[in-house]
Amino acid sequence: MMRGLPANGAVDASRPLSLPTLLIRAPAIIGRHKDPEPPRPSSVALEIHRQPLRAAADWQLQIIQEWQGHRDMFTFIATFMRDTRLIQRCVFLASDDVDGPLIFRYIGQPSTLILGEDWKAQNLNRPHFDNPFRALPDCLGDEYAEAIEGGEPLHNLGIAHGLKNEPVRFTHTLIGLQALDKRRAVLSCIQL
Amino acid sequence: MRPHTPHSLSDMDAHLLKLEQDLIGIAALIDQMPEGSAVLAERYGLLLQELSTIPPLGAAGIAAVLRTFLREIQGNDYHVGVFPRLIRNAMQAAELLAADDFTNMVDIFREEAVTVPVEPPAEVLVISAKAGGVSVDVARRVYTAMVEFFAQRRAPR
């Protein structure tokens, strides 16, 4: 099974994960690319605990139900999210092609509340990893991959340490979507 | 994106629907004749061949191809040769529609991600007033009307 790619070196597969520290940093030699951002001193760590779907909030369950009734009817799901405004509680990522990374295409209020408007502006339309503004460790990539490949919704309790003074607790319901041509997408429904 | 074709989507599918109706009409005529009709049977075969060479573009076209396929396999006089082509045409068209569906979904999310401030910054008003050759006040009213339009469109239905 394909897992999320570790960025910038090894990410320990055990949990909780912390941001990997860069040991070697080389300036980019190829012209247009800027040198990588210096790693911010950070002790951000993310704990992920799998939960049964029944632990999901009502609105998260509502989305699961809608998805189960309209599997692979992609436009229908998107229209449902938009028209109910539940879209505002979600993050949506999609790959442009089969092998491409998942790219942030919609960032809703929960993420903005925790990570800030600047983070949203920096991340919208950028890959969720391989991105200097990445705020959370890459274990989310593993969860996204599992939701896509498993074909069933996942529900997790997440606890992020180091973003605020207090640990930030959230749950997310992940719905993985895959086109016939193997383009991938994830809808992450986030409850703070 | 769809490959460019000389015909519009509805033209191709309308032609498929027309051929399907012609086939049904000829089959009914043949059924009324106790001895059948070689001329009509030949005409039927030609039209069926033609139908099988037209790739459907939309759901209506796919449905016409599949209905034709169903009638053929239920009939006594098998035109087995066209079966694979009918099925392949319908399948490929359905796959294209499915790919469009995924792209549509991504586009809806992307469109929702675009946000503009309710109160435009003064600089934006000056630039747009100049571009439109109107006063700053008119530019403000135009901006407000547009934002309100989209805000209403996005309100829950």
Could you characterize what this model shows?
The complex is a heterodimer of chains A (192) and B (157). Chain A is 26% helix and 24% strand. Chain A has 5 helices and 7 strands. The N terminus of chain B is likely disordered. In chain B, helix 1 packs antiparallel against helix 2 and helix 3 packs antiparallel against helix 4. Chain B is rod-shaped, with a radius of gyration of 27 Å. The chains are: A alpha+beta (192), B mainly alpha (157). Chains A and B meet through helix 2 and strand 4 of A and helix 4 of B.
Q: Strand pairing plus helix content of chain B: what structural class?
A: mainly alpha
Biggest beta-sheet profile of chain A: 7 strands, antiparallel
Low-confidence stretches of chain B: 1-8
Strand line-up in the sheet with most strands of chain A: 1-2-5-6-7-3-4
The radius of gyration over CA of chain B amounts to 27 Å
Question: What's the tally of helices of chain A?
Answer: 5
**Main beta sheet strand tally, sense and closure of chain B:** none
- Estimate the strand proportion of chain A: 15-25%
Measured by residues with Cβ under 8 Å of the partner chain's Cβ, the largest interface is: A-B, 25 and 16 residues
Mean pLDDT figure of chain A? 81
Question: Roughly how many Å apart are the termini of chain B?
Answer: 30 Å
How much helix, percentage-wise, in residues of chain A? Answer: 25-40%
Task: Looking at this protein, list some descriptive labels.
heterodimer; A: 192 residues; alpha+beta; 7-stranded antiparallel beta sheet; 5 helices; 7 strands; globular; B: 157 residues; mainly alpha; 6 helices; rod-shaped
